[in-house]
Design the sequence.
């Protein structure tokens, strides 16, 4: 069927705005159209004639009515300029995580051995591999489905990364000592689930999102202790965090003999990252 791009934009926006603001609905609808048809926004607004199979349109409408994320509908997301395959096995990459990658690539361009814990789609490892020349990256996740997606992403992007299935709480992959460890582990308390949007709660993997309400720092306890042993002298560890537990994470790092710990705010002004430094013996 042939549709006018402006009419399609309005149709998809109407499906989305029942569940979100008009601005966000318009943004997500336009993104879906631009990505699927490889168009600039100006072309969408100009009223371009578009050929769209009826079954594709009906599937879009069904998915949008069910509040499925547009990234899962289209099958990928953009992260640090890289096209990253995503589905319900992995989280959709966030702008805050891009911020962490930018920071690391600027401060640690010398890093030769890097470990990415809880890699998910592999977006952090892939972006660092693209931007830090000559680095060797090992990345792991407990989810077999996530590792399969990460490997496909690496193959599509022609980036050589050692993706492995492993458990943060058990035996870590070999390849160290590492100059740099990075992680975006689960950090949302189960008690916070009622505050989350349905498109996150109903589709993104709970394994990668949630931690027990009775022990919200469980992943950081393992990350900090095992990370300290896996790092080289004067190595660095960066992790994305829940701002609600920032002060507790500083205290945890002090108990585990890290030389220095700093909190880093994101573009929203929230304490979103922690940076730990290991002292030379």
Sequence:
């Amino acid at each position: 069927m042939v549709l006018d791009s402006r009419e399609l934009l309005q149709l998809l926006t109407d499906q989305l705005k029942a569940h979100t603001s008009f601005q966000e609905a318009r943004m997500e609808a336009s993104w879906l159209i631009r990505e699927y048809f490889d168009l600039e926004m100006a072309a969408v607004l100009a009223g371009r004639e578009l050929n769209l199979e009826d079954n594709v349109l009906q599937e879009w409408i069904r998915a949008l009515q069910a509040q499925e994320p547009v990234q899962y509908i289209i099958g990928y997301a953009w992260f640090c300029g890289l096209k990253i395959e995503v589905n319900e096995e992995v989280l959709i990459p966030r702008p805050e995580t891009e911020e962490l990658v930018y920071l690391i690539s600027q401060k640690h361009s010398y890093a030769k051995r890097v470990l990415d814990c809880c890699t998910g789609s592999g977006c952090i490892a892939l972006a660092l591999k693209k931007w830090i020349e000559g680095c060797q990256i090992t990345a792991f996740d407990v989810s077999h489905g996530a590792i399969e997606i990460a490997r496909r992403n690496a193959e599509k992007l022609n980036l050589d990364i050692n993706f492995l299935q492993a458990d943060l709480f058990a035996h870590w992959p070999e390849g160290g000592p590492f100059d740099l460890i990075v992680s975006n582990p689960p950090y949302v308390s189960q008690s916070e689930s009622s505050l989350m949007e349905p498109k996150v709660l109903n589709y993104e993997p709970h394994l990668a999102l949630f931690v027990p309400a009775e022990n919200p720092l469980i992943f950081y306890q393992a990350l900090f202790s095992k990370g300290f042993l896996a790092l080289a002298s004067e190595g660095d560890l960066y992790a994305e965090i829940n701002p609600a537990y920032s002060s507790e994470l500083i205290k945890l790092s002090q108990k585990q003999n890290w030389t220095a710990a700093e909190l880093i705010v994101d573009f929203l002004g929230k304490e979103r990252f922690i940076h730990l430094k290991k002292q030379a013996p």
Remarks:
- The radius of gyration is 20 Å.
